Amino acid sequence: MSDKKLKHQCAFTLIELVMVISILGITAAIALPRFSHANANYRLKAAANRVIQDFNLAIKQSQSISQNVTILFNKNNHSYQITNLPSLNDPTKTYQVELKHHPYQVKIRAVIMTAGGNSLLINPMEQLRKSGTITLQYGNKTRSISFDADTNLATDTSTW
């Protein structure tokens, strides 16, 4: 018998490495669509909340300055602006939000107002002059916001 000791090497076999990589690939394939779905929901909900909060801001601004305030939705630019409200970045400009840019990256798919047009007029008595709905879109997902002239409320009417 020889006094040679067998050296034991610690390493992964090729089969073990292939198995781990396969499991990671399958996990990624399952998780990616769910992540995309969650991302779309997050962006749409954040944009809808921004529109609703800006609607409430427009009501307060109209009351504060005792003048009409108009929210103008631009479907082509996927943006809206609020008249008689200065921009946060430059007080000489009108307040404007571009939903197509970061962090929202959503589109305005539809603007439907009861009396036509693409705007909401709010008078100083906190009265919304007409009702309407806007629909936001990210990928194939949509979210709707309704403006009710009877209650002067903006609500996210999406159910998912």
Name some characteristics of this structure:
minor pseudopilin epsh fold, 32% helix, 160 residues, alpha+beta
Description of the molecule:
The protein is α+β, with helices and mostly antiparallel strands and about 160 residues long. Helices cover about 30% and strands about 30% of the residues. It has one domain: minor pseudopilin epsh domain (minor pseudopilin epsh fold). The protein is built from one helix and nine strands. A five-stranded antiparallel sheet has the order 3-2-1-5-6, covered by helices on one side. A four-stranded antiparallel sheet has the order 4-7-8-9, with helices on one face.
Q: Bin the strand percentage.
A: 25-35%
CATH superfamily: minor pseudopilin epsh domain
Tell me the radius of gyration.
27 Å
Shape: elongated
Using the coordinates shown, work out and report the CATH topology. minor pseudopilin epsh fold
Strand order of the largest sheet: 3-2-1-5-6
Question: Secondary-structure element order, as H and E?
Answer: HEEEEEEEEE
Q: How many beta-strand runs?
A: 9
Find the structural class using helix and strand composition.
alpha+beta
Mean pLDDT: 91
CATH class (first level) name: Alpha Beta
CATH architecture field: 3-Layer(bab) Sandwich
Number of helices: 1
Biggest beta sheet attributes: 5 strands, antiparallel
Number of domains: 1
Unreliable parts: none
| Distance separating the two termini | 75 Å
Q: What proportion of the residues is helical, as a percent range?
A: 25-40%
